[in-house]
Amino acid sequence: MVDRRAVLIGNTVTFGILAIGCVALRLWFRISQRVFTLADSCITLATCTATVQTTLQILSSSGVTNWGYGRHAVDLPVSIRKSTTPVMYLWLNQVFFKITTMMTKLSLCLVYHHLFQKADSKVVRYSRIVNYATGFFIATYYFAVFIAVTFQCTPVAKSWDTTIPGTCVNIRAIRFVTSVVNIVTSLLVIGLPLPVLFKMKHRGSELKQIIILVLLGLIHTACAIGRLAVLIVPALATNRDTQFASIPNNTAGMIEMDIGIIAASLVVMRPVIQLISHKITGKETPGDALSGSRGPSAYIHMSGSGSGGRKRPEYIRGITKTVEVELESQNVSTENILGRGKRG
């Protein structure tokens, strides 16, 4: 008897705990710095809906409340095979997944909004427009898919009870298209800030750290591609043995979702990482998150000139200020994050 329950529960619980821990650390630090933005609200909501999904997966697969997930239909009692509860859990998982994905990606778009709103250059203006367009697309598409999945059948109860008369949309087609959109939007939110950050000719170690944290989002892209592959493989996508066949897609989806939350949080957690490093090693790092001062508006007090009293171009000053404001690197060497060179 093949049993896939351990695969689903192990991955779901492990990555779920990592995501919750990462977001909790992010929120603790930002609240302690008296900074809590709409981006933080979005990632908090995403974590809550992800936790609901984790709970659903555990309820459907655990030995205490086992509804057959991970086992072949022939190995299940007749009562479970005839029950609509397992299919209802699948339906609920689809619904909450759309909310989680939308909120996670919108949180990054909101981070970039704060990043781009003060500085002004051709690259920043283009990036700002692309960010608005990306955010609008993410909000409208995932909300539309959320509605479509929620009301995929008429009546709604037919979504989990096929004995009820009615009609349903092609949910497999929606899953496939949404998986492709997940990959595209993942690449978009990763690539959005890079032109602005790479524009700086003299990049300090802090900015390089930010770029690395942004690029870690490619792990989420890889997860999204993996889940699309699961949907494409006929042997894994079959609906004839739902409780067993859905495990690869469910597991891949849960990992993709939690990795997305972690990646979205890491973008604004460089100061937290520095703080932890300082506590462990006792060594000061450039741009230590606890040094320096911060005004009541959460902006760093910084000079408009570089070394030797040389006045900085407005482009450099604007980007420097907004990068550090949003990423919460509270330090007197803020200007060093973009170096002391001229605009390229």
Describe the protein in words.
With 344 residues, the protein is an all-alpha fold. 65% of the residues lie in helices and 1% in strands. It contains 13 helices and two strands; from the N terminus they run αααααββαααααααα. It has helices at 5-32, 38-61, 78-82, 85-116, 122-150, 171-191, 194-198, 205-215, 218-232, 234-237, 242-266, 270-281, 314-327, and strands at residues 153-154, 167-168. It has a two-stranded antiparallel sheet. α4 runs parallel beside α11 (242-266) and α6 packs antiparallel against α9. The radius of gyration is 23 Å and the shape is globular.
Q: Quick one: how many beta strands?
A: 2
Amino- and carboxy-terminal Cα gap? 64 Å
Please list the strands of the largest sheet in the order they lie side by side: 1-2
- N-to-C order of helices and strands: HHHHHEEHHHHHHHH
* Biggest beta sheet summary: 2 strands, antiparallel
Number of helices: 13
Give the structural class: mainly alpha
The percent range for helix content is 55-70%
Segments where pLDDT lies below 50 for 5+ residues? 286-344
Residue share in β-strands = under 5%
Mean pLDDT over the residues: 75
User: What is the radius of gyration computed over CA atoms, rounded to a whole number of angstroms?
Assistant: 23 Å
